[in-house]
Amino acid sequence: MHTVFSDGDVWPTIRVQEALRENLDAISLTEHLEYQPHADDIPHPNRNRAHEIALEEAKEHDLLIIRGSEITRSEPVGHNNAVFISDANKLLKDKPEQAFSEAKKQGAFVFWNHPAWHRQSPTGNPILSDFQLKRINNNELHGIEVINYFDYSKESLALALEQNLTIMGTSDIHGLIDWDYTEKGNHRPLTLVFAKKKSTASLKEALFAGRTVAVYNSLFVGKPEYLEPLLKASIKINSAQYEEDTQVLVIEIENATSSDLLFENAMPFSFYSKAPIFTVAAGKKEKLQIKTITELKEFKLQLTALGAYSAPEIHPVITWDISVEK
Hints:
Helix content: 10-25%
Number of helices: 8
Low-confidence stretches: none
Largest sheet: 7 strands, mixed
Structural class: alpha+beta
Order of helices and strands: HEHEEHEHEEHEHEHEEHEEEEEEEE
CATH superfamily of the largest domain: Metal-dependent hydrolases
CATH class of the largest domain: Alpha Beta
Mean pLDDT: 97
Radius of gyration: 22 Å
Number of domains: 2
Number of strands: 18
C-alpha cells in the first residue's frame, strides 16, 4: 500500500478507513524509501511518518498496523517490501545489500514485489538473479508476490515453490480501493495468513512459516497444505439424501466465503441435470444431483477447484466425506 508519503494519492488515514470498511485484520503501509515524488509538497525526513499517522487513526479499532517500507532499486534488485521493521529510517542505505542486512537486523519479513512486472522484467516473467539468490541464502528474502494488483504470475508461483518462499498477494494500491477495485466489481487482492492468534507476533510467525494463501476475487493460490483445507472449509455440506425411489443422491452445498467458487466434477459418478463444471456463488447454496447407480450409506464428494492453484497448472481436488441421510 502507498500514500502521499511516497507515490500514493491519499493520506494514511484513508488506508485505515478503507481497511475498516472491508473488515480486514491487518495492513501495512509500505512506502517507497527511495522514491519520493511528492517531496516538494510533503517533505518528510522521517520515513516512519505514514505508519505513525495510520497507527493513530487505528488506535480505537481492532486493526493491526504493521510497520513496513519498500526498498526500491533498479534491476536486478527490483522492489521489495520489508514488514515488521522497527525503524524505516535505518533502511535508507547507499547499497541495497546494506538495506537488506539492516532489515534482517530488525527482524523483518521481506518479500519480493511484482517480480513479473514488465517494467522490471520486459518479458513479463520473473528473473531470479544472483542478488535474489544471495538474499534467500542469507535469510534476507522470505516471500514473493504471486498476485500483484490485477496480475497473477504462475512463474512467480513456480519460484515460490522452488525456493520455499512464502506466497503473497497484494493490492499495491496507490489510489482509492473503491476506484481501482470495488467500483469495477472486484475485491482487492490480499494474503490470507493462518496465524494462531490475532496479534503482530503471531502474524509474523505465520508469515515466516509460510502459512498463507493469496486471494483475488475467485482466484486462490497457495501451497497444498494450506490451500486444500481452506477450500474444504469454504464449502458446507447441508444435507445428503436420495430422491425418493431413485438412486440419485442430492447433496446441498453452501459457499461460506465472499468469493465465488468454480468447481469441476472429479468423481466417477456423473451429475443429473447439471454440467460437470459449475459455480457456487458467494454465500449461496447449490444442489448437486449425483447418479450413484446403487444406494450408498457413505459418499465421497470430490470436486476439482478450477479457481485455485497449488502449483502452476495444478488445480487441487477437494474431498468431503459425507454420511447419507435415510
